[in-house]
Amino acid sequence: MNQSSRLVDQVDARIVGFLESRSLILRQIAPELAPFETFSRDLLSGGKRFRALFCYWGWRAAGGLSADLSPAIVDLCTGLELFHAAALVHDDIIDRSDTRRGMPAAHRRFESLHLDESWEGEAAGFGEGAAILLGDLLLAWSDELVSGALALLPDTHARATRQAFDLMRTEVTLGQYLDIMEERAWRAPSELSPVRRAERVMVYKSAKYSVEAPLAIGASAAGGRSSLVEGLRDVGLPLGIAFQLRDDVLGVFGDAEVTGKPSGDDLREGKRTLLVAYTRSRLSESAKRLVDELLGDPDLDESQVRMLQQTMREAGALDEAERLIEGNVALALENLDDLALDDESREALVGLARRITDRAA
């Protein structure tokens, strides 16, 4: 078994054990809290563990021992996975997404619980409120795991790791705000072009916390020099951009049976991605108005989705996204070549770069 597979297995086992330990607290408080355990377990049972893997290989790149999967690095990686799960719960509420990983989104599951039990009040409002609390609980649990990991590290390593983790949380939260603002304020005058605004959202909402931050957190935990940590950030940011661009392409053109979300879901949610910004920048005013009228309509039918997809293709937006993915991967690998790493870490990071950008889900 290679080191990546070993890490994923240990993170999976730690997630199961941690949730079981927290389920005791839930049951002691009230049996009605069982959905928090069930929904957390279901959400965390899927996923590709990319953030955990980048954290681990950042740790290895900075001198973490290959034969020593210590409780500190396992808990740190697991904490990142719980943070990601919390972000998904909140993101699905904000984006009004009905599904996640082939299952109903958490707020829809709570809504169904309300309907099944014939409770008073509005089911949708209950679902959203309960899911916000689930996301908050996952954030708290994430911090428990990270704090426990930091307690096992030398003080200087722990301080640097905490700073990197805290910066990640700030950036992704503010990036999420920029995202929801852009969906509503995109017509407002701005010093930045729509393309630049979309790039800014992508960087802070996703790219940094998906790749750059996990690399920096792992390297900091191993006591990596600041020059190495910054070098890994230079690898992680373009790779995170390529990762999110691939997500954006899949959100419009992906196969629903593979992605676990309806094809064209990003169009129904009205996401102002780079694909949309590039498309609008290349359309006539009349064609642009038609796109604006359709984008964000939750009732788009399949023919309307196909029309928008074709418009994006004909505008060259899809080709531009693919070019940017390829260019950012190339930049990340070029920056990786500049770092003095052991062969195993270098090969693992090259493999991860390919995995996160050359995928169908």
Overview of the structural elements:
- This protein has a two-stranded antiparallel ribbon with strand order 1-2.
- The relative contact order is 0.11.
- The mean pLDDT is 94.
- Helix 1 crosses helix 3, helix 12 (274-281) crosses helix 15 (317-337) and helix 15 packs antiparallel against helix 16.
- The two termini are 24 Å apart.
- The chain folds into 2 domains: 1-46 and 71-151, Orthogonal Bundle (Farnesyl Diphosphate Synthase); 154-361, Farnesyl Diphosphate Synthase (Orthogonal Bundle).
- It has 361 residues and is an all-alpha fold.
- It is 77% helix and 1% strand.
CATH level 4 superfamily of the largest domain: Farnesyl Diphosphate Synthase
- Which CATH class of the largest domain? Mainly Alpha
Beta fraction:
under 5%
General form: globular
Radius of gyration: 21 Å
Q: From the coordinates shown, what is the CATH architecture of the largest domain?
A: Orthogonal Bundle
